[in-house]
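Chapter summary example.
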Amino acid sequence: MPDIPLAAVCVLLVCYLPPATVLAVIDAQQHRLPNRWVGVLSGTVLLGALLVAVQDPALWSAVRTGLLLAAVAGIAAVLVALAAPGLIGMGDAKTLPAVVLMAAVLGGEVLVGSLLAIAVLGGLLGTVVLLVTRRAGARFAFGPVLLSGPFLGILAAPLVAQALGTG
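The structure predicted for these 167 residues follows.
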């Protein structure tokens, strides 16, 4: 099992989980991720990540990498949402940076596991929706899948570490 810093787990449980839960419930019910809650999620994760990095300087590298990856992923997702709104909703695009930052703070293997799990679970859910509705344009709430990423990444991290030869 990859070594996940306790301080990062605290950020996950205290800063990430409460607003992520609210967002997942709202998206499941209404198919939208309100800007106010996305802002709360993003702000609390950013603040928590920075506080963890100040408290444990060894985590600065993970936080710096997470910030860079979150910015790149967020910009790319917003561009995709603008160019092809049927592929990803704008709420999902704006939520992605907080998910990426949180997973990165937990560690590289967690980040990779998180992104893989989101892709696989999202693909499976999309396939089920397609089979049930028999409509190619059927939509489903992707927010709960996206927001579960850091938790799924923790579960997948040992497999990622084994595949990379680091665990």
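To summarize the output: The chain has one domain: 6-164.
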